[in-house]
Amino acid sequence: MATDSREDGKFLSRKMMVRCGGHCNENHNSVVQPLLTDLYQITMAYAYWKSGKTEDQSVFDLFFRANPFQGEFTIFAGLEECLKFLENFHYSDGDIEYLKQTLPDGIEDEFFEYLSQLTAKDVILQAIEEGSVVFPRVPLIKVEGPLIVVQLLETTLLTLVNYASLMATNAARYRMVAGKNIKLLEFGLRRAQGPDGGLSASKYSFVGGFDGTSNVLAGKLFNIPVKGTHAHAYITSFTGFSELKTRTIRHKVTGIPQDLLELSIKHRDALSEVLDISTEESSEGELAAMVSFAIAFPDGFMALVDTYDVKSVENGVDLRHPVNGEMNGHSGGTSDINSNITLPNVAIECNHKTDVRPKLTCNADVECKCRQRSGGWSYGVLEDRGCSRCCSSMRNSRKILVGHVVLGRNRTNLLTNVGKSFRSGLLNFCAVALALNDQGYRAIGIRIDSGDLAYLSCLARQTFEQVSARFRIPWFNTLTIVASNDINEDTIISLNEQGHKIDCFGIGTHLVTCQRQPALGCVYKLVEINNQARIKLSQDVEKVTMPGSKNAFRLFGADGHALIDLMQKVSEPPPEVGQKVLCRHPFQESKRAYVIPTRVECLYKVYWRDGRICQPLPTLDQVRDRVQASLKTVRTDHKRTLNPTPYKVAVSDHLYNFIHDLWLQNAPIGELS
Question: Judging by DSSP bridges, how do beta strands 562-569 and 648-652 pair with one another?
Fold first, then answer.
């Protein structure tokens, strides 16, 4: 179980204080400090100071220009970390000494004295509520205050918001495609971009809708449920029954000890007839490992069931080898043996040019139903159709291809043949689970980490239902099936189309690295100085900034869904319910529409003023709930994964005219000669 970070994190925070130069307080990331910035922020600060701009007041907007992952929404996250940064914004003596050594010679000591006195007490920060759905161009954060201080905040605020929002958005997309009834676990620490990336991924995947993490430190710091079982290494560390040093387990109620291995072997023999699996097909080392793990965790027994492939008797090919590394989710066999198989007198082939495995040609009258997605190969529905890679219809063919390994001839029952690569783990798991049941315990379930996940999950569920009916154990058919193995958003969509029976996905690499789009691209732009609006012009219209201090409102329609986000000057009165509002595209004159809102939501709250946080901060669970509640206000067509409808962001008529007047004032006039 996870622990409460607000208590257990104190010791860790105190240890971090030793190496963070006095910047830390409890629950504050020690790395987040004023020197976590780009050098040019400090050199600009000196130039501002040298130019006498210490009293200048400014407004900066933090926003992004395009939604990530080819979608039409983003989740705003990282606000709490920004506020903690403001609380701790102060250059320590050690920071000042380092800057004296690093900055160019000739910088006056008075500037370093000025830096040492800076805090965020004169800064005002307004923001959209963390966990909200947000859209391009609408500022997520507005920062007002002394020019030098607000400029020095830029890089740190961006790094705190960019990845957090990208990660929360990615996780929210996984939650949407998986559905509300499927558990999602983040397994990405080992693949994350360093320790801080791993912790942030765990935190913000939970915010986006994941149910837990394998990251123990994240569980401690952020009070996120921690989940995990064992790796293939645990299974392969056992070679036989003789290695079991402990074999007995006491009954949960009576306390009477029993030999769990003997009970498991007895049940394995019985299951062999029920499931039509020979006991010779099971690995003794695997059974010993499962018995060992069950004795250690009788109330939490979940086993990895795909460590060993088993023997194919018909072809005389011994496939009883450990699975090598992580597969790509579409192979039923192991790569080391696929390249050495002598095919029987049959020509079968997967015609995928990207496949590195031996080419095989299918001469059957088939229709390939594959679709290649960006995240890997997807599958068709596995009924009595053949190749699990090609999804080819092979009802009349005698040729069976699974994971590019020919398993036999004269067969039309695909399920029987594919099942042979999965039988050892499933048989041994069921035997141990039944033995635990005899002793008053309930197993949790299985994890599948390779192969055709859709088919294998269906086979596992069918097996559990058989065992439940045969041994009259109702809970057995509800055992949890967890799937891992390089899963991405497209994989889940494909598995949904195939009718999988997976209860939980463990997702790592594609989640935490955001492989489809590794950066959100938030920017931080000056929009006002000393009450004078500023605009950045560009030949690329997308990079033209919205000048001046602005308010933002979300207007809702009669069906309760958000219609449009409207920005307007702070001097304008807010839009009113039931009153017609002219909404204009900021740069395209002909794009405009009247909106009569049934509800108006002001997007900004003041979170920091007078040197302190001035809003109660939500817990991580509350931010997580906010994400789902906010997503419900957005129409389905804006959230769909394929060709989503763009959400409209507009400006008021007054702001539109102001932007274009300022544009003309600042744009240079060319001269023809």
Answer: parallel
